[in-house]
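Bit of a strange request maybe. I'm writing a small parser for structure token strings and I need a real example to test against, not something I typed by hand. Could someone generate the tokens for this chain?
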Amino acid sequence: MAADASLGLAQGSTARRRVNPAVMLFFLSPMLAELLTGSAPPAEFFNPVLFLVLCALYGSGAVLVRELVVRWNKGWPSILVLGMAYGIVEEGLMVKSFFDPSWPDLGVMSVVGRWGGVNVLWSVALTMFHAVWSISIPILIVEALYPERAGLAWVRNRTLGWLTALLAADVAFGFLLLTPYRPPTLPYLLACAAVAALTAWARRLPASWVSQSPPEPEPAERRAMRAWMTGFAGTLAFFFLTWVLPSTGVPALLNLALIGALAVLALVAFRRVLASARWGTERAVAACAGALTFFVVLAPLQQLDATRPDNTSGMALVGLAGVAFLAWVWKRVTGSRSATALGAEGAPSSP
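Reply from user aminoacidic:
Good idea to test on real output. This should exercise your parser:
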């Protein structure tokens, strides 16, 4: 029985090595951030042109963040900060939703929390969303699937250069052709400066943000379930604060304060999840699964939503595929407990 299990793990590891983790990350990021969330339902996501645009945007961004952190010998603090920079690049510099009062997804946030020509409440919410769901969660999942390659570069410098050019071309394409709106000059330049400042900050941050703690006496399965619930509850709270609360008449400044408080609580919880000496990886993946389960539950409801102007057919199947994917990831990760854990700083483990 033990020999069969070892053979199964070896075969699984060999199968994973056939796919470069950078390739998996390149496609996983847009699939989680756009397809699973319903931002781009199947009819849109699998349109060849939009598919290429989304992969060039999300995929290049996620791989760039991960590879820069590896080359700088940094860890999770830098990933999260670079994820924020990516959010500004996508929403501020490319699609200009930070500034456009007519951006279709804004809803009441085109008025609530808009100051100085900037959709401030929307900008904060989308920066956080991309930092977590578009960048950090895909990196963490792929790192957990390839523990033997944690801390190693996945692409060569030349490939990194091509990805940078691809992302830049995609941003220019979106700025010029996606909408005719042109943002005010000063706020746009400030967004560019924010990207540069966050990138510089990420390079100066410490590689680790917490000392590893010994295993907790609580059963491992219970800790994993608690991490899953934390991820789900955190996502539910985030979308309540960013999509429901602005419509209730709550002052925008109070709304922003509540979002900031949630971000602090999420960071504290994430540090605790990654601090376990043995179960850091599994608990982190469980927390990610909980965060993504929110969208799995939402997927069939989006298909039934007759008020949406886009074609949401197939979202129920996307939800089922999400369940299957998360189950597969969990099986692979828990079947490789002897591999190197993500450690105190998470993925990459060294950086």
